[in-house]
Amino acid sequence: KDKTFRPKRKFEPGTQRFELHKRAQASLNSGVDLKAAVQLPSGEDQNDWVAVHVVDFFNRINLIYGTICEFCTERTCPVMSGGPKYEYRWQDDLKYKKPTALPAPQYMNLLMDWIEVQINNEDIFPTSVGKCKEEVL
Fold this sequence. Notes:
InterPro entries: MOB_kinase_act_fam (IPR005301), MOB_kinase_act_sf (IPR036703). Keywords: Kinase, Metal-binding, Transferase, Zinc. It comes from Chaetops frenatus. GO terms for molecular function: kinase activity. This is MOB3B kinase. This protein is mostly helical. Helix content is 42%, strand content 3%. Helix 1 packs across helix 3 and helix 3 packs antiparallel against helix 4. The protein has two domains: 61 residues, no CATH class; 48 residues, no CATH class.
């Protein structure tokens, strides 16, 4: 729970999602137009394509956060903000029933944990291709 770096979520080699992941990586690393890079490939399931990009985005954000977390402590970052006009407050309806101001590192740890739970939830991101619930995405 106190970890700031989480290992990448991996796709099983040989699966359709792994192939979609490889295609997404290749398009993002090739310097192509981003609009074209995120377009649904012909014949692929939209939910699977979105799921691959969500997991990749989470992994990239996790790496970026890992590089700055040592500089943002509860003392140096006492508020989770988006500049002087915006303050983010945490609410999860479990421990934090009302929006609660938290130091940025605590907020980020709660956020990353919450996202990881969502990504690992088989009802939202099933590992079987083509089985995503329509109402979720």
